[in-house]
């Protein structure tokens, strides 16, 4: 049998409706240096029937598994692959006819690149294109690698996949982010600005399982920075409190579900193993009564004057004083937490820190992507900022800060900056973005907790 340079593997779990289109897109490729593995992971639809249409083609191998899940199937494909390059195609997507030719040529001419990926068309369940997604060129235009490529349609060298240990099987999601995290620190990656595959969005996509994806993403980040964390210590959490200037006196005393906002925030911090110090900074010594509820040496009080609590006064000077006390060399990280975002949990606090370290950035904070129309005033009236268009770049997205958990390098304070020049973001669940800005919002927060507890 002729040696094949590329191994394409198609994974189907109940994607029989789309599977023929996926397989045919491989058969139509303008290069013939490929083999195809079609893997049925315990489908209950017509997947097996569609697969059997191609059992006479010597380039195609048909494999069945017992519902082991996508990461395990991907690892099986690595073991079975005879090609030097691997590329996964999900059973509900399909390739442009030149995809394998273009991607393999790029790897062939760039021996120092471990993986390459293209742009894509977004299609609906009826194969209609409704958008084109373009990624800015990594290492050329895009120097912040916090947005991984889609796990499908990445062409990657098989020997690199083996070196990094393949795919994690304990998470069941975020396979693309898993690869990205393992490769970005030690290998080069690249992208090609041609839409070479068709990515289908429908109600059954794995990407719709938000909580599953969120948990997997956080686990990958935490594991990827485990060896680097010591170089970024100490990690300080700062919880600012004040007597005045909120919509009520001593806002930190307000209770949700019978627990003060300060106590809730302290508990979340104490549950984090990443934090070396948890500093309550306030002009009111009464916060010590709440701190006394806990026995943890990491918990510290730091006094600030009333003048430093005025709303228009920057927080940086007090953060600098705190950092110099607990981190004289200014080599560590400070995480600022806001009492107004009472639904922020320990996992989000940790993700602020791991996102910062993983991307070697100066600052990381949580954001929400804004999909609603935004406008600015011009000479001729209102002009939309986030213009709806079919061709979109990852630089077209607009975000708003959520004031939940911000992680920043202590060295930034030396220049009077809270964030420094290189800022990265992470996206959190919508419910964690809830911000208590008024008595009404405080009452809503109480009702939400009461409803969840009932």
Write the layout of secondary structure elements.
Elements (H helix, E strand, L loop, with lengths): L5 E7 L3 H12 L6 E8 L5 H5 L8 E6 L4 H11 L4 E6 L3 E2 L3 H11 L3 E11 L5 E6 L20 E3 H6 L11 H9 L4 E13 L9 H15 L10 E6 L14 E2 L2 E2 H10 L6 E6 L4 H5 L7 E5 L12 H11 L6 E5 L8 H13 L4 E7 L5 E4 L2 E4 L6 E3 L5 E11 L13 E5 L11 H15 L1
Parallel strand pairs: 1-2, 1-4, 2-3, 6-9, 7-19, 10-13, 10-15, 13-14, 16-21
Antiparallel strand pairs: 4-8, 5-9, 6-7, 6-8, 11-12, 15-20, 16-20, 17-18
Helix pairs in contact: 6-7, 7-11
Would you kindly provide a written description of the structure presented here, covering whatever features stand out?
This protein is of the alpha/beta class and 454 residues long. The chain folds into 2 domains: 6-224, Spore Coat Polysaccharide Biosynthesis Protein SpsA, Chain A (Alpha-Beta Complex), CATH 3.90.550; 231-453, Spore Coat Polysaccharide Biosynthesis Protein SpsA, Chain A. Helix content is 27%, strand content 27%. The protein contains 12 helices and 21 strands. β11 (255-256) and β12 form a beta hairpin. It is elongated.
Structural class: alpha/beta
Number of strands: 21
**For this structure, what is the CATH class of the largest domain?**
Alpha Beta
The biggest beta sheet, please? 10 strands, mixed
- What number of domains? 2
Helix content: 25-40%
Which regions are unreliable across 5 or more consecutive residues at pLDDT < 50?
none
From the 3D structure, determine the CATH topology of the largest domain. Spore Coat Polysaccharide Biosynthesis Protein SpsA, Chain A
The span between the termini is: 65 Å
CATH architecture of the largest domain: Alpha-Beta Complex
Q: For this structure, what is the CATH homologous superfamily of the largest domain?
A: Spore Coat Polysaccharide Biosynthesis Protein SpsA, Chain A
Which band does the percent of strand residues land in? 25-35%
What is the residue-averaged pLDDT? 90
Rg on CA atoms, Å: 25 Å
What sort of overall outline do the alpha carbons produce when their principal axes are compared?
A: elongated
The number of distinct helices, counting runs of at least 4 residues, comes to: 12
């Amino acid at each position: 049998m002729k040696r094949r340079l590329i191994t394409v593997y198609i994974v189907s779990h109940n994607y029989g409706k789309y599977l023929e289109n996926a397989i045919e897109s491989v058969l139509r490729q303008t290069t013939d240096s490929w083999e195809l593995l079609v893997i049925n992971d315990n489908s209950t639809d017509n997947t097996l029937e569609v697969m059997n249409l191609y059992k006479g083609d010597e380039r195609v191998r048909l494999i069945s598994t017992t519902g082991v899940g996508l990461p395990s199937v991907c690892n099986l494909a690595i073991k079975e692959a005879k090609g030097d390059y691997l590329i996964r195609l999900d059973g509900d997507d399909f390739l442009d006819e030149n995809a394998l030719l273009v991607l393999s040529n790029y790897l062939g001419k760039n021996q120092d690149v471990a993986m390459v990926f293209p742009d894509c068309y977004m299609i609906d369940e009826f194969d209609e294109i409704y958008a084109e997604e373009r990624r800015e060129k990594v290492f050329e235009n895009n120097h912040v690698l916090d947005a991984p490529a889609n796990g499908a349609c990445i062409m990657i060298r098989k020997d690199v996949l083996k070196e990094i240990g393949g795919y994690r099987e304990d998470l069941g999601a975020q396979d693309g982010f898993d690869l990205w995290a393992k490769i970005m620190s030690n290998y080069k990656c690249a992208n090609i600005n041609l839409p070479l595959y068709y990515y289908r969005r429908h109600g059954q996509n794995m990407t719709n399982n938000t909580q599953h994806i969120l948990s997997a993403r956080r686990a990958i980040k935490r594991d990827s920075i485990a060896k680097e964390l010591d170089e970024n210590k100490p990690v300080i959490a700062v919880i600012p409190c004040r007597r005045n200037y909120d919509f009520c006196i001593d806002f930190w005393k307000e209770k949700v579900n019978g627990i003060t906002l300060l106590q809730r925030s302290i508990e979340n911090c104490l549950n984090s193993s990443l934090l070396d110090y948890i500093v309550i900074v306030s002009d009111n010594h009464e916060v010590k009564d709440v701190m006394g509820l806990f026995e943890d040496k990491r918990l510290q009080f730091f006094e600030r004057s009333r003048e430093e609590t005025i709303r228009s006064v920057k927080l940086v000077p007090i953060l600098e004083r705190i950092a110099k006390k607990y981190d004289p060399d200014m080599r560590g990280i400070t995480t600022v937490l806001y009492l107004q975002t009472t639904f922020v949990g320990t996992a989000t606090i940790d993700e602020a820190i791991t996102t910062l370290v993983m991307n070697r950035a100066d600052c990381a904070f949580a954001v929400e992507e804004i999909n609603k129309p935004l406008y600015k005033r011009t000479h001729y009236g209102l002009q939309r900022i986030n213009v709806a268009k079919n061709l979109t770049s990852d630089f077209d997205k607009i975000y708003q800060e959520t004031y939940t958990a911000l992680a920043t390098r202590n060295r930034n304070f030396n220049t009077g900056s809270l964030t420094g020049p290189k800022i990265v973001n992470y996206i959190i669940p919508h419910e964690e973005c809830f911000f208590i800005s008024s008595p009404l919002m405080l009452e809503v927060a109480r009702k939400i907790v009461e409803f969840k507890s009932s």
